[in-house]
Amino acid sequence: MGVTVWLTGLPSSGKSTLASALAERLARTRRVQVLDGDAIRRDLFPELGFSKDDRAENVRRTGLLARLLAGHGAVVITPVIAPYRAARDAVRKDHEAHGLRYLEVFVDAAPEVCAERDVKGLYARAKRGEITGLTGFDDPYEAPLQPDLHLRTDRLSVAECLDRVAALVTGAESR
Ligand SMILES: Nc1ncnc2c1ncn2[C@@H]1O[C@H](COP(=O)(O)OP(=O)(O)OP(=O)(O)O)[C@@H](O)[C@H]1O
Ligand SMILES: [Mg+2]
């Protein structure tokens, strides 16, 4: 049965890094699709911005796409910030209503660590006042209350995080 693995967390917390590594590992034995927030927004929903409504709509549409693919037996990996709890919960509900699994992984690092990594330079731009509405800086991030897995990427190596998330998927498949 298909499954969606949603990697939620602050910018630069490690979502895309873990998604690529997980996809590479699982692709040996499974059909895998990564829906990375950046590419999906740019290529499929370019009209969506970063208002509260647009962020929620981005998660709703990405969740729907993930559910459709999971319905064909794929492991769908979504490294997407998804800052709002209600929007994530709705994706879980939609999966479960279709008999599909939704695994939420909280990719967590202290905001200071994320700002230090600053893979895309967004925190620096926000600090300089060049952009506003950056999640975790001046826009809210609602951390998962009961994630299926909580990864502290500021304490664990990429390899350790990868092992844990791969074990989560394998465990869910065997249930
Ligand atoms: N345990 C870890 N897991 C994941 N990434 C880690 C870990 N430790 C250090 N890193 C580093 O943190 C950075 C995370 O960047 P990445 O692009 O994956 O973040 P992101 O969450 O996808 O950000 P964005 O929301 O902006 O797309 C990478 O440079 C990665 O090498
Ligand atoms: Mg990313």
Topology at a glance:
Blueprint: E1 3-8, H1 15-26, E2 32-34, H2 37-43, H3 52-70, E3 75-79, H4 85-97, E4 101-108, H5 111-117, H6 122-127, E5 149-152, H7 158-173
Helix pairs in contact: 1-7, 3-4
Bound molecules: adenosine-5'-triphosphate and magnesium ion.
Adenosine-5'-triphosphate is lined by residues 9, 11-18, 38, 79, 81, 117, 119-120, 153, 156-158, 161.
Summarize this structure briefly.
This protein has about 180 residues and is an alpha/beta fold.
List keywords for this structure.
single chain, globular, binds adenosine-5'-triphosphate, Rossmann fold, alpha/beta, 175 residues
Query: CATH homologous superfamily?
Result: P-loop containing nucleotide triphosphate hydrolases
How many domains in all? 1
> Biggest sheet, open or closed, and with what strands and sense?
5 strands, parallel
Shape assignment: globular
Structural class: alpha/beta
